[in-house]
Amino acid sequence: MELRPILSTLRRHKVTSWLLVLEIALTCAIVCNAVFMIGQRLHRMNLPSGVAEHQLLQIQLGGIGPKSDADAQTETDLAALRQIPGVRQATMTNQLPFSFGSDSNGTLMLDPHQQQGTAQVAQYMGGVGLLATLGTRLIAGRDFEPGEYVDFDAAVQALHDDNTRGLPQDLIITRGLAERLWPGESALGKTVYFGKALPFRVIGVVANLARPKNHWDGVEYSTLWPIRMTSAEGASYILRTAPQDRQAVLKAAVAKLKQLDPNRVVLVKRTYDEARHEYFANDRAMAGILVGVIAALLIVTALGIVGLASFWVGQRRRTIGVRRALGATRGDILRYFLTENFLLAGFGIALGMVLAYGMNLFLMVHYELPRLPGIYFPVGAAVLWIIGQCAVLGPALRAANVPPVVATRSV
Questions:
Q1: Rg over CA atoms, the chain
Q2: How many CB atoms lie within 10 A of CB 315?
Q3: Closest by alpha carbon to 60, among 25, 22, 24, 101?
Q4: Cβ count near 299 (within 10 Å)
């Protein structure tokens, strides 16, 4: 196909051609970045939590009036909850991965004299059976012994007094944090420092336990502490049961807790699946909006190509008639319009890639979005070329089907 007649025709319709090129370029830039952002959202929603997601229940209570026997009440509650048919494990913890609510973090150091922390880590606190209840897999070392647990009040007082008595001596960390702190080495027996250089020994490593929030500092950087908490301190009851028993157990557990103390208010009662679903609701909504934007842009671009091609076919009937009378076949006419649209789409895509790169730089600087991988450019170009060729196919076929005698009649 000779390109010079096509380019000559496009030069005579500069404004119209440039409008279509700019439309394709803008679509290419937005679609590439929008697809990338959807991929980021999907990746975030599929992050592993490290807990037995389909087996956990959470109940958080609020009290009315002062409580002086919170520790005893908690032990009574846990004993009663463990008696409910279907309950496999029960404990209390201050937070769960990927859930709103409390978010306990601490600054970890490897050297007691360093001025800045090594990493910000999530701090999971809980009573006996925390690992078993959460379903977090221990891959090295051991779990906490019953005698290693301390009460939350005592731990807070010890921190206030800068006294290690009353504080736990050991902690468990995640594999991701261990690899960050000691690459290629075993973390067991190593010492880390929190607060005013208070030392704690690593006795265990779990496969994974995602942070509740603050994922920008390492979603897998978490620690577990043998610290008993109560409802008065903001902790939640966590129950583990079979997936099919969750609703029945949740209902029975709430009824049992209300029976033990009617003056308490149930603040949260849900399965972990519900908690996770709520946490990623904004990500799903954003992904849906971006899909809608992509679909709308592609439809508008395709309609623009159809409209312009149809207009040019009607405007060039005399030219088509002359070419058909001089021996041009239907295939020649069809290829002419397809090639013309291919060139316009090519110009638009080339400009669109530059815009996509610039848009990604803007998002990186202002919204901490990662760099757009190069694979998005050829894939986006191929999609736009295919859509463009499909959109122009109808008008091109109509042009190719114009009989020479009808076309020459209007000459």
A1: 32
A2: 11
A3: 101
A4: 12
CA dist 220 and 232 (Å) reads 28
Q: Are 74 and 238 in contact (CB under 8 A)?
A: no
Beta strands in 119-166, from DSSP E residues, in sequence order: 119-125, 138-141, 150-151
> What tokens appear for 358 in the block?
């610039």
Nearest to 51 by CA among 102, 105, 95, 101: 95
Q: Measured between alpha carbons, how far is 258 from 240 in angstroms, rounded to an integer?
A: 19
Q: Which residues pair with 228 in a beta bridge?
A: 151
Q: Taking each helix axis as running N to C, give the angle between helix 330-367 and helix 281-315, from 0 to 180 degrees, rounded to the nearest 10.
A: 150
Cα dist from 121 to 138, 189, 334, 387, whole Å: 18, 19, 63, 48
What the block records as the tokens of 82 is 């463990």
- CA distances 95 to 59, 202, 234, Å, are 11, 21, 9
Task: State pTM to two decimals.
Answer: 0.79
Instruction: Convert the pLDDT of each residue in 236-268 to its tens digit.
Output: 999 999 999 999 999 999 999 999 988 888 999
Say how many Å lie between the first and final Cα of the chain, rounded. 25
Which residues fall within 8 angstroms of residue 243, CB to CB, at 6 or more apart? 54, 55
Give just the sign of the alpha carbon dihedral 326, 409, 309, 385. negative
Contact indicator for 399, 312 with CB cutoff of 8 Å: no
Provide the angle, in degrees to the nearest 10, between the axes of the packed helices 4-12 and 330-367.
60
Distance (Å, rounded) from C-alpha 169 to C-alpha 166?
9
Using DSSP, state whether 195 is helix, strand or coil. Answer: coil
Q: Tell me the pLDDT band of 67, cut-offs 50, 70 and 90.
A: low
pLDDT digits (tens, 9 = 90+) for 77-127: 999 999 999 999 999 999 999 887 667 888 899 998 888 889 999 999 999
Q: How far apart are CA 21 and CA 10, in angstroms?
A: 11
Q: What is the C-alpha to C-alpha distance for residues 206 and 199, in angstroms, rounded to an integer?
A: 20
Q: Which residue from 39, 35, 43, 19 is spatially nearest to 381, judged by alpha carbons?
A: 35
Q: Is the dihedral of CA 99, 102, 103, 104 positive or negative?
A: negative
Q: Which amino acid is it at 48?
A: P
What does the alpha-carbon distance between residue 81 and residue 75 come to, in Å, rounded to a whole number?
Answer: 10
- Is there a contact between 361 and 370 (Cβ–Cβ < 8 Å)? no
